Amino acid sequence: MRIESLHALLSAQLSDVCTPSPHWEAIKEGLQSALLDPNQTVSSLSLRLFSRLALSNVSAFAACEAHSGLTSTVVALYRDRTRAHTIPTASSGVAFKKKSHNALLQVILSY
Which of 34, 53, 64, 107 could covalently link to 46 via disulfide, CB atoms 3.0 to 4.6 Å apart? Predict the structure, then answer.
């Protein structure tokens, strides 16, 4: 269900998806949780949509929402004590064999 929804969002006009409305807030929250989904397909599709928003010339609002959404997700990941052991730190470094480290790098490098 989530995969089909993300595909539908990716095929929609960005100007129809990202507008200042309560609906966008709900969509953005869903996209942020999808970024952290253990299913690689779900997280990749969400990241693609955020990247599309960030790089589009649709509106300044869309670009701002993409960057703030990605940043908020990374900050929430570091604040979440239940996931603290799965993310890289200055002392542990990045382990490229860990799926969570690669996912975090994809989000950061999408900027």
Answer: 34
